[in-house]
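[Q] Does anyone have a clean structure-token version of this?
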Amino acid sequence: MQHVQRFSKPRELFGCIIQCHTNHGYIGSFRQRFKLQGEISCPCGEADIQTQEHILRECPRYTEARRELLQASQYIFLPEILGTTQGIKALTSFLAASGAYTQSGTQPLPPKPPLFDNKPVPDSKDNKSDLDL
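[A] Here you go.
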């Protein structure tokens, strides 16, 4: 785990790395193993049980992001991906690009800017600067 400590990514991404590394998290095999509620099949429809191997190697939902993993390991050999510095860096890039191991399984949307529609408009009399006094 010393490879993970060097990354300065948001804690959500760090959590996804740990979930993938320990084979825990928002995936079907984990839900099945611990008899948790929720779907155990992959939303892509190609796996009866969503597993770590399916997510990292096969799931069509993550084809684009998988290129990161293929640069670190030609066959996405899990000991290389999960146990080497180059593999952990590739896994970090893959998880950031794909949103795998998140509750939704997709990349999070950027936060919406705040709406100021319900805020009162200040009266021009209240906006006097200190120089107007």
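[Q] Thanks! Anything notable?
[A] The first helix runs from residue 2 to 5.
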